[in-house]
Amino acid sequence: MEGMNDDGQWIILMGFLVCIGLFFLAVVVNESTIVGRTTAESVLDFSKSDIQDIRGQVFEWKNLGMTGSELANSSTDLSRLAMYRQGARINITADLNKITIHYNNGVTEYDEKIFL
Asked: What was the pLDDT predicted at 18?
């Protein structure tokens, strides 16, 4: 760099700084896309709509007045369907004054007791 004038040295120095800045920004953008992807996957793993569908079905059964063997048969069918389609374990039990819902898909576990 001895043979260059001052303007040439500044151009080379600024080009070097711009390259370092672009490299740093590329690393930051790469990390942010990875974080955004895993965050979106974790939101998809929480199955809020599945739990709401199950609760809605249980409340519909309650409004229809299903008890005893009817509720047990319907609960078994719903459990098998959830395991087949979503890979989730659902257990719905009914006692005299309460209905218990247990939902587990391996990531999200949800328990609720509905008192009649």
From this structure: 93
Structural domain count of the chain: 2
For 61-88, give one letter per residue: b (16+ CB within 10 A) or e: beeeebeeeebeebbeebbeebeeeeeb
The type of residue at 116 is: L
Q: What is the pTM of this model?
A: 0.56
Closest CA to 54 of 82, 35, 29, 16: 82
Residue 111 and residue 69 in one domain: yes
Whether 27 and 52 map to the same domain: the answer is: no
For residues 60 and 25, membership in a common domain is answered with no
Question: pLDDT digits over 36-89, tens only?
Answer: 555 555 555 567 788 888 888 888 887 887 767 777 788 888 888 888 887 888
| Integer Rg of the chain from CA | 29
Does residue 72 share a domain with residue 106?
yes
